[in-house]
Design a protein that fits this description.
The structure holds two protein chains of two kinds. Chain A contains 14 helices and no strands. Chain A is mostly helical. Chain A starts with a helix and ends in a 5-residue tail after the last helix. Chain A has two domains: 53 residues, no CATH class; 209 residues, MetI-like fold, CATH 1.10.3720. In chain A, helix 1 packs across helix 13, helix 4 runs parallel beside helix 7 and helix 4 runs antiparallel to helix 10. By secondary structure, chain B is mainly alpha-helical. In chain B, 74% of the residues lie in helices and 2% in strands. In chain B, strands 1-2 form a two-stranded antiparallel sheet. In chain B, a hairpin with a 6-residue loop joins strand 1 and strand 2. Classes of the chains: A mainly alpha, B mainly alpha. At the A-B interface, helix 1, helix 4, helix 5, helix 6 and helix 7 of A face helix 2, helix 4, helix 5, helix 6 and helix 8 of B.
Chain lengths: 273, 312
């Protein structure tokens, strides 16, 4: 009994924070199930007639086109980051040469660089490459800015693998490329899942490059598309909330499938040398 | 190939063999690093160099005028009140991150280890803000702060504080705070995750020893948990300072830097100068300054951190 009373303040704080973090989310979902009339008469009440109409109505918009664009860009970028990041970390972590440390440092510096310091040149470069206003133009900057954290994670992970791997591979007559792809890469799976999850979350939500490098519905990703909805839907708030809810689903889904991995991935994102 | 090598070695002198090996090694390193170096070099290193180069030109970006003016843009920048206002807002955001996000994240992480029932629910809900799409958060909070039907005003009305009701984002005095609360809402869960991972890593024996000594609650925290969390707190501080210096997204989405530049950050000011006012030369100057500031701050933090480590 005494213990219970002592724990009351703990519960109060825990529940207050629960309301603070959860309420906006709840309001978004709640509003998305109402019709417009209901929303304007009682904006914050529970819906009287639970309806999925706002969601099905999204099929008549560009929503799923934006969604698809985001998915394509995110998946391709993450795959490229995994391949290029793991490859670049191999010499840095497992071969001895003069530039190991400077090269690692070069990538690490990338974590503090403000994206805006690269924005104008990348805008012009993308135009010159003929990639302006296409989803393909986004992949370059996404990969480039995902490389620093990925190289750091891979380098750290790879330098902890036993040195004997190379020696036994050399006896079998394996070259460096075979050694890397056949023996090392499969051993990197824990680091790879960290890199994949960390970068997917960031690229899925990326806003500024998508804003500057695309200029049409054709090439817009979900964040840009949502902003457009905000302009168009300003009278239909429940419809807008349905779009916002649906846009948040992939990350929530990934979270429920791989909770521990995400948490580990994000925590690993903080490993600064 | 492998079989041929020994005979080759016999035919050539040891010196050229070593040279050959060295060249082969160089090619291997290059082969592995080339894709990453090319992309990183082009989109990060080259781009930064070009930004500093453009920062010395009077250049709109849309017409042919591209005039070298040396450091004139930097002189203008130092006299530009809006730039100073935005730098002030960045500083405010740094303070808010350090003194709100990190403590809140720490409290949330500690709660996850307390004997509160229903832990899975708490953990999931606490973490959700970080998983929400940033644009979705921005739009959602625009409605939460709405002057007419917004949740904040409704709650104030419900407890009889009608006098405090206002359009939070349209008011020059409250807009920056309204957005900062939203930013803290989004990022506190991230720090919660970092702290949770660090707390999991604390050896159980330490707490067992503390139990034997009869240390409970606050003493356990101040004598064991907190000292062991110091490194991750420093890391979080670094992340949040750097993050606050280059922050852009929610400010741009929720206020666009307005009303009347009251919420401008360096990044939103740079965006406006470049892509709204078509002042690419000056926009490059603002972003060069962002780089310089972020660089100086990083060097200071790393120096201080190394000193702290040396003191141990």
């Amino acid at each position: 009994m005494l213990k219970k009373i002592k724990q009351t303040p703990l519960y109060i704080v825990a529940i207050l924070i629960l309301l603070f973090t959860g309420l906006p989310f709840f309001i978004m979902l709640n509003t998305s199930f109402k019709d417009q009339g209901e929303f304007s008469s009682a904006p914050w009440a529970l819906p009287e007639n639970f309806s999925f109409e706002n969601y099905t109505a999204l099929f008549e918009t560009n929503f799923f086109h934006f969604f698809w664009n985001s998915l394509v860009v995110s998946v391709i970028s993450v795959v490229l980051v995994i391949i290029f990041g793991a490859m670049a970390s191999y010499p840095i972590s497992r071969m001895k040469f003069k530039l190991n440390r400077p090269l690692l440092l070069l990538f690490m510096v990338g974590m503090m660089i403000p994206i805006h310091t690269t924005l104008i040149p990348i805008f012009l470069l993308t135009q010159n490459l003929g990639l302006y206003n296409t989803i393909w133009g986004l992949i370059g900057p996404y990969v480039a800015f995902a490389l620093p954290i990925s190289v750091v994670i891979y380098t750290q992970f790879m330098s902890e693998l036993p040195k004997e791997l190379e020696e036994s591979a050399k006896i079998d007559g394996c070259g460096h490329f075979q050694l890397f792809w056949k023996i090392l890469f499969p051993l990197l799976i824990p680091a790879t899942s960290t890199v994949a999850i960390y970068n997917f979350i960031h690229i899925w939500n990326e806003f500024i490059f998508a804003l500057v490098l695309t200029n049409s519905d054709e090439a817009a990703t979900l964040p840009i598309g949502l902003r457009e909805f905000y302009g168009e839907f300003s009278v239909n708030i429940p419809g807008l909330m349905a779009a916002l809810s649906l846009a948040s689903i992939p990350l929530l889904l990934v979270y429920f499938v791989a909770q521990e991995k995400i948490i580990k991935g994000l925590a690993a994102g903080s490993v600064k040398g | 190939m492998a079989i041929n090598e020994p005979s080759q070695q016999l035919n050539t002198s040891a010196g050229t063999y070593r040279k050959k090996e060295k060249r082969k090694k160089f090619l291997v390193i290059l082969g592995f690093m080339a894709p990453a170096l090319i992309i990183y070099g082009l989109y990060v290193v080259y781009a930064i160099g070009m930004t500093f180069y453009y920062s010395m030109f009077d250049w709109s970006g849309i017409d042919a005028n591209f005039d070298f003016i040396g450091i004139q843009n930097y002189i203008t920048l130092f006299q530009d009140l809006t730039f100073w206002q935005s730098l002030k807002n960045n500083t405010l955001l740094i303070a808010a991150s350090l003194f709100t996000q990190i403590p809140l994240g720490l409290i949330m992480a500690l709660l996850l280890f307390s004997p509160v029932k229903g832990m899975r629910l708490f953990r999931t809900v606490y973490f959700m803000p970080f998983l929400m799409s940033t644009v979705a958060i921005g739009i959602l909070f625009i409605y939460i702060y709405d002057a007419n039907f917004g949740l904040v005003n409704q709650l104030l009305g419900a407890v009889g504080l009608d006098s405090l009701q206002r359009g939070w984002l349209g008011n020059e005095d409250t807009a920056i705070w309204a957005v900062i609360v939203t930013i803290c809402w989004q990022f506190a869960p991230f720090y919660m995750i970092l702290f949770r991972a660090a707390i999991v890593g604390i050896p159980e024996e330490l707490y067992e020893a503390a139990d034997i000594d009869g240390a409970t609650g606050w003493k356990r925290f101040s004598n064991i948990t907190f000292p062991l969390l110091k490194p991750i707190i420093v890391t979080s501080a670094i992340l949040s300072i750097i993050g606050a210096l280059k922050y852009f997204d929610l400010i741009y989405i929720m206020t666009g830097g307005g009303p009347n530049n009251a919420t401008d950050l360096m990044a939103t000011y740079m965006y406006d100068q470049t892509f709204t006012n078509f002042n690419m030369g000056y926009g490059s100057t603002v972003s060069s300054m962002m780089f310089i500031i972020a660089f100086i701050v990083t060097v200071i933090i790393i120096t201080l951190d190394n000193k702290r480590k040396a003191d141990y």
